[in-house]
Amino acid sequence: MPSLSTIKAFNEAFTFSYIPTAIFVGGTSGVGQAMAELLATYTNGRANIIIIGRNRAAADRIIASFPQPPSLEETNGVVVKHEFIQCDVSLMSNVRTAVEEIKKRHNKINMLVCSTGYLATSQVLTSEGVDESLALRSYARAKFIYELQPLLSNARALGEDARAMMILDAAANNKVNLEDLDVNNFSMLGANAATASYNDVFVKVMGERNPDIAFIHIFPGGTDTPGLHRSWLIGLVATLAKPLLRSPQDSASSMLYSLLHPDYSRGGFWLTKNADKLTLGNNINDEVTKKVWEHIVSRAQLQ
């Protein structure tokens, strides 16, 4: 288990042999924002960074804080940009539009990070008829990664890294209720457990189907992010527990380490908050994998 200081030292010393392209879905706050900021700092702006979210004002402030992209002379004519794509990712139709926009702008992706979502205390259905918390924490993430997989493959074909990451509760070995995959019998804990398991299954299947790409599901640990303050009750608990919570920057360091370290370069991975490897429990068996994958394909409208 590497210490946080070891993780930070590795990140700071890492250098790219190419100009990376990184996408942060949910990058306007919390860990996603902190990861984008760290990457911009460590590369001194020499990275294509795309932030996806709803809050344009927040994205503009974040991008303005980045080191300026290098000039064309410094990159031998390669254009480097820091961009924002506005998208309410709770709707799969919006995700598809964002995916198409990304494909117009870029022909490869080296890092694709999905950190959207929050702890919901009640079920709220989107206009597409699915629970919003499930859409944000599982379906939208799956759709971004699944539909942008060809651009990850393009990066790998160039001899570059290609890694996709979901940030939630990796390899928690929750029992999946196959009779209620939509979590209509809603509870905060039930929805959180379900989406964590769905992400486990997604990483498993995608890693098996695309063995040259890394698919990572990582647990951030207790982290003080804005998502903990959407509900007054959860916000109160988070405030009382603040001394025990990690900062978004410390969590982001571990997440970024997993996107840079050669130990996590190909296949499916489930990681702790300190980037230690986990294994899936017996609850993610063949039947669960098959039915959950079919559920994800349906709800995320995968093509």
Could you please describe the fold and organization of this structure?
The N and C termini lie far apart (39 Å). The relative contact order is 0.15. This protein has an eight-stranded mixed sheet with strand order 3-2-1-4-5-6-7-8, with helices on both faces. Helix 1 (4-13) crosses helix 8 and helix 6 packs across helix 9 (286-299). The protein contains nine helices and eight strands. The chain has helices spanning 4-13, 30-42, 56-65, 92-105, 132-157, 188-209, 232-240, 248-260, 286-299; strands spanning 21-25, 48-53, 82-86, 111-114, 163-167, 214-218, 267-271, 277-278. The model is unreliable at 240-244 (pLDDT under 50). The protein is of the alpha/beta class. The chain has a single domain, classed as Rossmann fold.
Q: How much helicity do the residues have?
A: 40-55%
Content-based structural category: alpha/beta
Low-confidence blocks of residues: 240-244
For this structure, what is the CATH homologous superfamily? NAD(P)-binding Rossmann-like Domain
The sequence of SSEs as H and E is HEHEHEHEHEHEHHEEH
Task: Output the radius of gyration.
Answer: 18 Å
How are the strands of the biggest sheet laid out side by side? 3-2-1-4-5-6-7-8
At the fold tier of CATH, the topology name is Rossmann fold
Report the end-to-end length measured between terminal Cα atoms: 39 Å
Provide the residue-averaged pLDDT.
92
The total count of helices amounts to 9
Q: Can you count the beta strands?
A: 8
Number of domains: 1
Strand content: 5-15%
Shape: globular
CATH class: Alpha Beta
Annotated CATH architecture: 3-Layer(aba) Sandwich
Major sheet details = 8 strands, mixed
